[in-house]
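**User:** Here is a favour to ask of a fellow structure person. Please take any protein you like and set down a full record of it. No explanation is needed for now; the record alone will do.

**Assistant:**
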Amino acid sequence: MNHDAYPDFYLTDILRSTKTIALVGASPNTERPSHRVMAFLLRKGYKVFPVNPGQAGKQIHGQTVYARLADIPEPIDMVDVFRASEAVPALVDEILALETRPKFIWTQLAVRDDQAAKKAEEEGLKVVMDRCPAIEYPRLIG
């Protein structure tokens, strides 16, 4: 897939079919984008599992924080990534090692790794990079 531009139907399909999200890089700091985006996703009815090893066991927006994806107690539909681009290849490996894989990987604004995306897509996952669901959701769904 060309990750320079996404058809609206592609993004809409992901946003509408997703019910559970692992938000990697979740922060309790109210000034961080991940904190605000998590709040937005919860308001829109998604079940969000924050992932941050330094905050594991604590809560963000009333949700228990997990150290890693494999610790989440139920299958997830999408992994939303708030990490530096350099962290994406290892994260894709972590995702591919899960017993039940998510269908989608979504990396936030300025987060992109084309080789990692290609690897995930070759394993059947859909990938969105350098986009924010809190921007795309209102634009596409309302």
User: Anything to note?
Assistant: The two ends are 26 Å apart (CA to CA).
